[in-house]
């Protein structure tokens, strides 16, 4: 029989176990595969080593796979007159291994997931030694048409390995889906918080703009005994004066907006720091720092303390 005829008959031969299932049970992954016209299969060494936990693929090949079971991609495809598969991952110099080379790497692997497959291989060897051959059981199926390929039952160890791997993959898929749902929920919560903060900031900006507009339009005056007009202190004029005296940060401005009306209307501020902190949303320490800054720049003066221990402040009079 000439070479093309041999390749054709070999390629048409029915595989007792689908090679994809066989490799999946052996490695725990669906690795890339090149199937040749003669029915042989080749696999990227880097893929197999990665799935089996061999960190150094070159060393793993040198230690466990003989030369006749490993090759360069271009050499194998060229032997059949085939071109290099499309895609960046299929390089001409890619190291590939035969199915036997893959099995040798599996036998050298210490991952628990490889144990059922290795036990089946050991069972095959032991059966061949004892009985001289090993054959798969024929599957219990309806009689096929004459000449149709025979169906075989998959070995129990291989079938169990595939079932266990599929169950594990389903569990991982479910965990991934749950993680994605949690991430989406967290993103929605974060977005809602950001929108709420933005609304507060916009409200503060509008309030400051209204105050600034009133500075330009509202001036209350009274006649003095010498006939001069003297501006009465208002919340707006007080805040405007403070802004001219110091660089007002957001926290200082928040405290200023709370205490200025009290100082104008009552003439003094007798409010515990905790109360101001509750009204501004700042810490007691930060409120105290803001008041200290206002005293330093002569915006307010300290006038002792009240009966309950709260500090007393009055407006600075130029």
TrEMBL record:
Coiled-coil segments: none
Signal peptide: none
Limits of the Bro-N domain: 16-132
PANTHER family: BRO FAMILY PROTEIN (PTHR36180:SF2), DNA-BINDING PROTEIN-RELATED-RELATED (PTHR36180)
Name of the protein this chain belongs to: Bro-N domain-containing protein
